[in-house]
Design brief:
- The chain is α+β, with helices and mostly antiparallel strands.
- The chain is 20% helix and 35% strand.
- It has a three-stranded mixed β-sheet with strand order 3-1-6, with no helix packed on it. Strands 2-4-5 form a three-stranded antiparallel β-sheet, with no helix packed on it.
- It starts with a helix and ends with a strand.
């Protein structure tokens, strides 16, 4: 009887833990604005502490000066702090820029010169 009760408690605990994770694993959404005078060609993000960048969010698109785009990071992770990397068109006077932000707390991000 005791082992059945322990087994039921373990199953219940696993279900509660899985439910808590799924509640917190929401997509991160924010508006990215290019506040520079150069074309933003590539935007990468990765959770802080991860050694590799995820795929370029823009794909074949770019973000022209003054334009905005809605970004959704749907990676299923439960973290909020992300590293971001911005790469500008070749020949611009802007170097590649990196920043770290808590994306759960922000609704928009503007990259400036």
């Amino acid at each position: 009887m005791k082992s059945k009760l322990s087994g039921l408690i373990a199953v219940a605990t696993a279900i509660i833990a899985a439910s808590a994770v799924s509640v917190h694993a929401e997509d991160l959404k924010f508006k990215l604005t290019n506040g520079t005078n150069s074309v933003l060609e590539r935007f990468y993000s990765a959770p802080t502490g991860v050694d590799n960048w995820e795929e370029d969010v823009f794909g074949d698109d770019v973000l022209n000066p003054g334009e905005s785009i809605d970004i959704t990071i749907a990676d299923g992770r439960t973290v909020c702090k992300y590293d971001m990397r911005f790469e500008f068109e070749e020949g611009s006077n802007l170097a590649t820029t990196e920043d770290t932000q808590d994306l759960c707390q922000m609704g928009s991000y503007t990259i400036h010169e």
